[in-house]
Design a protein that fits this description.
The chain is 37% helix and 14% strand. A nine-stranded antiparallel β-sheet has the order 3-2-1-14-13-12-11-10-9. By secondary structure, the protein is an alpha+beta fold. It has two domains: 105-391, DD-peptidase/beta-lactamase superfamily (Beta-lactamase); 397-469, no CATH class. The radius of gyration is 27 Å and the shape is globular. The protein is built from 15 helices and 14 strands.
Length: 484
């Protein structure tokens, strides 16, 4: 990871300030401006990497890697971690290796975009329908009103297969000699699990939903899911460094890391990606995912009608956003966008599309505890105005809004108490109270909560100083009545 600190008026800071005051950023930012936006938000860790690609107006305008895809040997693993899958983790080369745009990462749940697209392709070809019962394709699912659409929208009630107990029991039974898995057998075992709720009664993010969808693709297409991906998506788009279950090449492959308690970077044991099937088996690069995003925006893979269905969110409830089909529907101000992230085996991936702005970007990191989501508003602000309030981040947005409101309302309360107690300079006190509210609410996303709280108190301090040091107007003494 790059350790350089971006100071003073770097392009990213200018973009942030410009967005706050409503100034429109340049339609096509320079590579240096994008570098600064990434580095300003990328934690300065010298051991791990992040690769970034951006698509705008149908073109790849940026593709670059930062930091180290491989920190070199000796390997140090998190003490409490275990090699649950029993996979080999040694590697031939021992030196540190830098990341670039061709570096291969595991993308985890971003794979679900491809599984959703596979189902929609089969729907376009008349091989299945989204409202078909899952039981038509997985007979062991004894729930006639559970549909493919409910799996896609994470509203099935199927419990999550991603537990140690399920993996240890089922994985040996379903594993083939070539390292692949009998997905129909795993789907049968998932179907036997007790339901968490009735179909379509609730939202629950579950690996099982997209694993079963992958098994359905295999049954309907009469070929392995990996082959369907290759023939219908990867090869037509030239995604030669994207693969199912393992990296597509042996060169330029990232190693996964995690943060240990205390902040030390340690290597993560690799996951058996093939076990995740349609829910998380793919590895890819930012260059290849830029090809994927470009194809979606230009309707090369899916028709506009299919794409509209894939990107139409269903309310997840409980403040969890709007889950579409392999994507989460959200908005940055008035700009609608779709996104999904993925965490697996020491990797963290994020893929984002702003359909109305013809903008998409991908961030892949080899530190699972990295948060590429934090870069989303800053990168978007390089292409269109983003206000301070709209810089709220996905998933953590509800928390940030509540915390920002707490800072702002706290400052306002202090000001109101001061005005009510002192009863002087009422107009000035009201102005300082409103200013404290605005600063307390908008600054946390820019300056952090501590500095926002301090700055929000400054107008109140100014008001108190005015009351303390500006003397009261002394009224003239009343005239004495003359005696007659």
């Amino acid at each position: 990871m790059v350790t350089r600190t971006v100071r003073q008026s770097s392009p990213s800071r200018v973009a942030v300030l410009g967005a706050l005051i409503g100034a429109a950023p340049a339609s096509e930012p320079s590579g240096a401006a994008i570098d600064s936006a990434v580095l300003a938000n990328f934690p300065k860790n010298p051991h791990t990497s992040m690769s970034v690609s951006i698509v705008h107006d149908g073109r790849v305008v940026y593709a670059k890697g930062f930091g180290y895809r491989d920190d070199g040997t000796p390997d140090r693993f998190i003490a409490k971690d275990q090699n649950y899958y029993g996979l080999p983790f040694a590697r031939a080369r021992s030196g540190r290796m830098k990341a670039d745009a061709r570096t291969i990462y595991a993308i985890g749940s971003v794979s679900r975009q491809f599984t959703a697209a596979a189902i929609l392709l089969l729907n376009e070809r008349g091989r299945l329908r989204l409202d078909d019962a899952v039981a038509e394709y997985v007979p062991d699912v004894k729930t006639p009103n559970l549909t493919l659409r409910m799996l896609l929208n994470q509203r099935s009630g199927l419990p999550d297969m991603n537990t140690l107990a399920f993996m240890q029991r089922v994985r040996p039974l379903a594993r083939r000699s070539d390292g692949t898995f009998d997905m129909q057998r795993v789907a049968k075992e998932i179907a036997a699990l007790p339901r968490d709720f009735a179909p379509d009664a609730n939202f629950e993010y579950s690996t099982s939903n997209y694993f079963v969808l992958g098994a359905i693709v295999e049954r309907v297409a009469h070929e392995p899911l990996a082959a369907f991906f290759e023939e219908n998506i990867l090869r037509p788009l030239g995604m030669t460094r994207t693969a199912y279950g393992k990296p597509a090449a042996v060169d330029d492959v990232a190693i996964g890391y995690r943060l240990e308690e205390g902040g030390a970077i340690r290597r993560a044991y690799p996951w058996d990606l093939a076990w995740l099937g349609g829910a998380g088996a793919l590895t890819s690069t930012v260059e290849d995912l830029a090809r994927w995003n470009t194809a979606l925006l230009s309707h090369r893979i899916l028709t506009p009608a299919s794409l509209a269905q894939m990107w139409r969110g269903a309310d997840a409830g409980r403040g969890q956003g709007s889950y579409a089909m392999g994507w989460i529907e959200d908005a940055l101000g008035s700009h609608r966008y779709l996104w999904h992230n993925g965490e697996v085996g020491g990797f963290h991936a994020l893929n984002v599309i702003f359909p109305g702005d013809d903008l998409a970007f991908t961030l892949l990191a080899n530190n699972q505890d990295e948060r590429p989501e934090f870069l989303l508003p800053g990168i978007a602000a390089l292409f269109f105005p983003v206000s301070g309030l709209d810089r709220i981040l996905p998933r953590s947005g509800k928390v940030l809004v509540e915390a920002s409101a707490a800072v702002g309302l706290g400052a306002l309360a202090i000001a109101v108490v001061a005005i009510a107690t002192l009863r002087r300079f009422i107009v000035g006190g009201i102005i300082s109270a409103l200013l404290a509210l605005v600063l307390g609410f908008f600054l946390p996303t820019i300056a952090g909560f501590v500095w926002a709280g301090i700055l929000a108190l400054l107008p109140i301090a100014a008001y108190l100083a005015a009351v303390r040091f500006i003397p009261k107007v002394i009224a003239p003494p009343p005239k004495k009545a003359r005696s007659r």
